[in-house]
Amino acid sequence: MSEIVILSGSPASPSRTDISLKHVRSLVEQEGFTTAYYSITDFSADDLFQGRYNSEDIIKLSEKIQEARGIIIGSPVYKASYTGVLKALIDLLPEGAFKNKPVLPIMIGGSNRHLLAIDYALKPLISILKGEPLQGLYFVDKEIDKQNPESPIKDGELVDRVQSQVQEFVEAIQLRNN
């Protein structure tokens, strides 16, 4: 069983979203958690666009989410929100799919102008699924080094912020299960 499910809403590969999520994944795994990583590119376009909530892949994802202790969800910012394909995937999940689970939202944008997309777009989506959104992380594209996926964040203050959010996520999971 994977204790943490990670969902990437980036249609690009490789992407700064995936690099960021995989970096956070490594930090969570260092805390002793197992993870399952899903990208929207892992799902059939037909399933997503034809709304096949009963597809085998969607059912497996739903089961993994139901068994998870926490969720990390990330997306690039498109038009001041998360990606449409991420929304297509989320629409296929059961109502309350994130119920009572801490959720760490992560967004990557081209500039700080879309910093509030995490609060006005992604967190409400998490709440609709009955998840418990944490503060979350917002990165500007230039803060993520695509050439160094093992250590993609160079700014010390940002490294500290990421570690702080991972700790908050871990503590939220531990509180829920005590």
UniProtKB/TrEMBL annotation:
InterPro entries per UniProt: Flavoprotein-like_sf, FMN_Rdtase-like_dom, NAD(P)H-dep_FMN_reductase, NADPH-dep_FMN_reduc_SsuE
Domain NADPH-dependent FMN reductase-like span(s) in chain numbering: 3-139
UniProt KW Oxidoreductase keyword: yes
Record bears the keyword Oxidoreductase: yes
Keywords in alphabetical order: Flavoprotein, FMN, Oxidoreductase
Signal sequence extent: none
EC annotation from Swiss-Prot or TrEMBL: 1.5.1.38
Gene Ontology BP annotations: alkanesulfonate catabolic process
GO molecular function, one term: FMN reductase (NADPH) activity
Name of the protein in question: FMN reductase (NADPH)
Organism: Peribacillus butanolivorans
